[in-house]
Design a protein that fits this description.
It is built from eleven helices and seven strands. The model has no long low-confidence stretch (mean pLDDT 96). Bound molecules: S-adenosylmethionine.
């Protein structure tokens, strides 16, 4: 593991997270009650536009019960649980952060989905899967932490089956430097946004062609505006995971997008 990867893992290392989640969730449901996906959404969809973005990307990717899905950089498993619950497919989640994987397993058990969504610690650049092992790979708000984008996309290409789908949702660099801290990095040492022009080129060089390419920047701005107009979330939310300064990180992210420093892009691609 490189020094940078270790630093990224530290950024997402949340001490005693599964126990803290257990305590926080007691405010919305008793421990023996099955939790619904929508109850966890303020907490477990760790990307701009939350569950809305996952639902849109999944609809575009065209999943079926038989689709073998990998959620790469799965966080605490919200997107993977959404996909398993909505489409009935089997989802494997991989993430660098051991505390996130522990929490993903705990929350998935609470949702009664452990037979369809499983999680393991791993590095997106060195995946422990055979060539062509998955029919769909999801990568939501992860690539921004990975400097070697060519190797990342080549690894996704390797594990995708013929005719598979790569669904990616990320920030792309536009005009100026990012103001830190942001949800994925406290400073520039673990932030690796690729420019809007280089992103499609790098994907193409890794062997992908686009099926759908969508600029979600305006949708992201609208979502932040609506979120900031209301009161702060009262129940368990992403601050429970990332700590009290998550609010500042989120405000900076909204500001960065408003000032057109990064844009927000989603795409579904297929190997060519
Ligand atoms: C902003 S969170 C997004 C989590 C999840 N995709 C979601 O949308 O809810 C970024 C995640 O990427 C993971 N990550 C970053 N670099 C990674 C790598 N090289 N391999 C695996 N996971 C990585 C982090 O640990 C973190 O959980």
């Amino acid at each position: 593991m490189t020094d940078t990867t270790t630093q990224v893992r530290e950024h997402y290392n949340a001490t005693n997270l599964a126990s803290r989640l257990k305590v926080a969730l007691a405010t919305i449901a008793a421990e023996d009650q099955t939790l619904r996906i929508d109850q966890l959404a303020p907490l477990d969809q760790f990307h701009t536009r939350g569950i809305l973005a996952t639902a849109e990307l999944a609809a575009t990717a065209g999943l079926e019960p038989s689709t073998r899905v990998l959620d790469l950089g799965c966080g605490i498993g919200g997107p993977a649980r959404y996909l398993a619950a909505t489409f009935g497919c089997r989802v494997t989640g991989v993430d660098l952060s051991p505390s996130f994987i522990d929490s993903a397993n705990y929350l998935t058990g609470r949702c009664g989905l452990s037979d369809r969504a499983t999680f393991q610690v791993g590095d997106a650049l060195h995946l422990p899967f055979e060539d062509g092992a998955f029919d769909a790979v999801f990568l939501q708000h992860v690539a921004m932490n990975i400097a070697d984008r060519s190797s990342l996309y080549a690894e996704v290409r390797r594990i995708l089956a013929f005719g598979g789908r790569f669904a990616t949702y990320d920030l792309v660099l536009r005009d100026g430097d990012v103001v830190y801290p942001v949800p994925w990095a406290r400073d520039s040492s673990t932030s690796f946004l690729l420019s809007e022009g280089d992103t499609p080129k790098t994907l193409e060089q890794a062997g992908f062609k686009a099926v759908v390419w969508r600029d979600d920047t305006q949708a992201a701005l609208d979502w932040f505006k609506a979120a900031m107009a209301g009161p702060p979330p009262s129940g368990p939310n992403l601050s429970t995971v990332m700590g009290p300064d998550f609010q500042i990180m989120t405000r900076n992210l909204a500001r960065n997008i408003r000032e057109n420093r990064p844009g927000v892009l989603s795409a579904v691609l297929t190997p060519h």
